[in-house]
Amino acid sequence: MGGAAAQPARVPAPDGPAGHAAHGGLGDHDGLTVIGADIRRMRTERERPDDSAPVPAGVGASPQRPAAQGLALRLPDGSIEPIVGELVLGRAPAIGRVTGTSIPRPVVIGAGDPDISRTHLRVAVEGGTVVVTDLESRNGTHVVAPGQSPVRLRPTEPTPVLADTVIDLGGGWSVQVVNR
């Protein structure tokens, strides 16, 4: 049959542990979707000091690795906070709550407001993308992407967001991801 390109056949993975191992340990995972565990694993691999692979610009922002150009947070008072390394937002952010090799920079939002957790949200640039993680805040965090309905973040699950996304911390406090 001429003209039609042959498509690779999809072979269902066998059930059980043997099927899991036979497909590189992916199980039902298609290998194309990035999940929170993948982001944490990539972050850990990237931050190893003995890693000889070059790090692309914007990955693992730190004083040695600058953030992706122009990504910042517009804070409730209108000021702009560049996203360099990791930021931890809250009414009294504790940098000890976040694991990793770099020290996050605390950003105070809603000081004294009980609707905002002490350590509420982590914001970082990973692979040129802003990634936000609710740090098991008491009242949760919602993200509102441009033209979309609000979505509540799952606690401790890193979630990528686009520029112009509004991050609602509750109690009338929100920040916005912006290009500078």
From TrEMBL:
Entry superkingdom: Bacteria
Gene3D superfamilies in the cross-refs: 2.60.200.20
Composition bias, Basic and acidic residues: 38-51
Transmembrane segments: none
UniProt key word Ribosomal protein: no
Name of the protein: FHA domain-containing protein
Pfam families: FHA
Compositionally skewed regions (Low complexity) per UniProt: 12-23
Region ranges (Disordered): 1-67
Source species of the chain: Agromyces marinus
Domain FHA as annotated: residue spans: 87-143
Keyword line: Phosphoprotein
Keyword Cell wall biogenesis/degradation: no
